[in-house]
User: Which sequence fits this backbone?
């Protein structure tokens, strides 16, 4: 069976038809025909998006999200593959758990689910988990992370970086010096000082990133830095890259758009934990530096850090609230707003940072290919011309903790194709 | 005035002066043998205390009772809260009972802001975490005004653990609104890193500030802070930042010494200084009741005060 996508602007270019046969793009050109036709006139075609950083919460917190609901959200956000973080309950620190998550993803079928393995047993930061067993499992784990917690012990981090070289793995570090962030609630700065909330200083992120870059260089391994949030971190990563070290980095959509003053003054009131996230929202100067770094390639990837939480974990006083925001269904819109409409990135740049680069870093062979003959037909069709109010009730995620309520965002994912099969059509699950 | 009193920043200069003037008037009434006024009869004030603070709670309780309000004391200990009830559910319960004002003390900064989103009554912040304690700042300003007259241009030095002090935050905001010149004195570890953006001066040297002060306000310093390396030892803290007899002896005659309590005698303030005539510590407690009466009266729009004491 064949599908032809008519008149799509590939990476925002001139309209062209895309012919898909047996899950593979077989031709790109004019006046192509197939068994089925999808009208994509006026839409931008992007390679299927790949998220390096998703919390699907299953097993353990199925009240917040499941593989089924989270991957629906991913497909609706234009994603064809997501990396499921390891901080589940039980922790994804054995071949058994990563295979379970991988199989749940296969069964759901909305997008590919690539489990991330924990670096240390139980995320305890004390003993290495069986990284090799996870790598050799059916889930073929290549990204290892204790995300949510930092691998703060320098020796353990060194060993992890060295050990994963045997199977071309990468350690994705949640850079947070724990002693400098004990009880931390928000970015340490003028706002935290006024609000009397314990500060999360930029240096707690930057010190770990600097140390880990040096360690990765020393042992000749790959390091990936999760959710970079400060201007200082950008400088350190830029320096490490200038040395030719194999360091990559990601930024979240929310760190590209939102700032810490929302904690004090926002449409949803002061101290509203909808803005509580780790790492915290930073300052306008940090946002500007992150955008610039994403534009110039210092930061390789936009990753959502989609972190669902049930309502009761956010409808509390600030200090008691859970950290995190959902983001799969708004990521592309936020990137359009922060990067494309500001002229910092074109759609080819978006494809690089939301598809090609994350697939490369995660070693996902079947994702992150240009829309061209011979590529797996992982394609996202996006209408960049519309704009709408954010309606949290409309999302497929089980959770509602979006920080964009009360805002309008541009763009709409119209269709997503996973190996030629539509997972989303007309903006709805296919 | 706004509907709630959550931060001292909620008060304009006119609002603050109105509260202080109203408190003056109420203080005159409090000197009568019958202290009770009928102005808030039939109104309900809930004291919602998630932290132990007998002093502040009884001060608010006395204030509400002298205005004839019905007072409900809700202490989190031994209540449904200690069984895991959320702040929101507690708020909805109070709302269902028809609270006209909720006085809240909570260990989490910002809890009164959240509460204000869930109840219709006025919310009065009686201390939230390390954020603010606006009625303490009002009673402090009231006390200064009684001793020194107008606060315009008065030099107020606040000494101690500024970083963790809700009293300091509220005082800096209110005193700057009222035209006083505030200087914070503390070891650098006990100041927020962003203190340079506050409407006040900062010094690390108590001795250099004492000759330039009309008011010296000492803050409680918790001994546990030294375990987190905020300062090396109690003795060193006391030597560098304590108001001992020798330092107090060098103060000009009219200078007053304040402390919001509870004190660590011998730590941040010497017993002789706390008990000296320049100390306003006991007056502050008494003034707390009249100032809180003024706040409740103005927020709840009580009946006219006038005439009754003429």
Assistant:
């Amino acid at each position: 069976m064949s599908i032809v996508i008519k008149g799509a602007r590939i990476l925002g270019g001139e309209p062209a038809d895309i012919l898909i046969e047996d899950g593979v793009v077989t031709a790109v050109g004019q006046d192509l025909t197939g068994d089925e036709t999808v009208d994509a006139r006026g839409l931008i075609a992007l390679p299927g998006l790949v998220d390096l950083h998703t919390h699907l919460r299953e097993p353990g917190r199925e009240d917040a999200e499941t593989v089924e609901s989270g991957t629906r959200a991913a497909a609706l956000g234009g994603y064809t593959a997501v990396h499921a973080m390891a901080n589940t309950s039980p922790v994804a620190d054995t071949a058994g758990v990563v295979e379970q998550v991988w199989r749940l993803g296969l069964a759901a079928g909305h997008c590919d689910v690539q489990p991330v393995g924990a670096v240390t047993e139980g995320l305890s930061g004390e003993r290495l988990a069986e990284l090799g067993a996870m790598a050799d499992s059916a889930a073929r784990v290549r990204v290892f992370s204790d995300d949510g917690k930092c691998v703060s012990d320098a020796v353990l981090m060194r060993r992890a970086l060295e050990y994963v070289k045997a199977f071309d793995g990468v350690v994705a570090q949640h850079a947070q010096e724990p002693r400098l962030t004990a009880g931390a609630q928000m970015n340490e700065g003028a706002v935290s000082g006024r609000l009397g909330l314990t500060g999360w200083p930029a240096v707690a992120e930057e010190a770990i990133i600097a140390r880990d870059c040096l360690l990765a260089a020393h042992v000749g391994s790959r390091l990936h830095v999760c959710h970079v949030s400060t201007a200082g971190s950008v400088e350190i990563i830029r320096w490490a890259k200038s040395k030719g070290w194999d360091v990559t980095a990601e930024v979240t959509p929310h760190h590209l758009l939102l700032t810490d003053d929302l904690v004090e003054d926002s449409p949803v009131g002061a101290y509203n934990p909808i803005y509580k996230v780790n790492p915290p929202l930073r300052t306008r100067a940090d946002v500007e530096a992150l955008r610039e770094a994403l534009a110039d390639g210092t930061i390789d990837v936009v990753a959502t850090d989609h972190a669902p939480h049930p309502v009761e974990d956010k409808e509390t006083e600030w200090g008691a609230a859970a950290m995190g925001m959902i983001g799969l269904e708004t990521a592309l819109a936020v990137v359009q707003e922060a990067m494309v409409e500001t002229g910092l990135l074109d759609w080819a740049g978006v494809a690089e940072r939301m598809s090609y680069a994350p697939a490369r870093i995660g070693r996902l062979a079947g994702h992150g290919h240009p829309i061209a003959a011979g590529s797996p037909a992982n394609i996202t069709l996006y209408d960049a011309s519309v704009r709408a109010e954010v309606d949290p009730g409309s999302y497929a995620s089980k959770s509602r903790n979006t920080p964009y309520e009360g805002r309008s965002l541009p763009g709409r994912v119209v269709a997503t194709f996973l190996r030629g099969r539509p997972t989303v059509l007309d903006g709805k699950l296919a | 005035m706004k509907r709630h009193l959550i931060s001292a920043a909620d008060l304009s200069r006119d609002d603050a002066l109105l509260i202080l003037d109203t408190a003056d008037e109420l203080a005159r009434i409090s000197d009568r043998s019958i202290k009770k006024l009928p102005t808030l009869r039939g109104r309900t004030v809930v004291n919602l205390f998630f932290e132990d603070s007998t002093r502040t709670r009884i001060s608010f309780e006395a204030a509400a009772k002298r205005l004839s309000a019905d007072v409900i004391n809700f202490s989190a200990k031994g209540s449904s809260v200690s069984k895991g009830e959320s702040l929101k559910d507690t708020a909805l319960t109070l709302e269902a009972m028809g609270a006209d004002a909720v006085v809240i003390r909570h260990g989490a900064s910002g809890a009164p802001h959240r509460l204000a989103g869930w109840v219709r009554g006025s919310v009065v912040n009686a201390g939230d975490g390390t954020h603010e304690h606006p009625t303490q700042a009002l009673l402090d300003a009231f006390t200064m005004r009684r001793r020194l007259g107008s606060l315009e241009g008065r030099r107020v030095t606040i000494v101690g653990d500024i970083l963790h002090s809700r009293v300091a935050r509220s005082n800096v905001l209110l005193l700057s609104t009222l035209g006083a010149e505030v200087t914070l004195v503390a070891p650098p570890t006990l100041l927020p890193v962003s203190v340079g953006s506050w409407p006040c001066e900062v010094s690390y040297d108590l001795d250099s500030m004492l000759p330039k002060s009309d008011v010296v306000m000492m803050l409680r310093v918790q001994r546990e802070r030294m375990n987190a390396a905020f300062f090396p030892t109690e003795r060193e803290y006391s030597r560098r930042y304590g108001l001992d007899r020798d330092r107090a002896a060098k103060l000009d005659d009219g200078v007053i010494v304040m402390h919001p309590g509870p004190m660590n005698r011998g730590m941040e303030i010497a017993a002789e200084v706390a008990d000296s005539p320049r100390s306003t510590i006991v007056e502050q407690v008494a003034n707390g009741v009249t100032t809180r009466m003024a706040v409740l009266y103005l927020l709840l729009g009580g009946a006219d005060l006038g005439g009754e004491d003429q």
In short: The two ends of chain B are 27 Å apart (CA to CA).
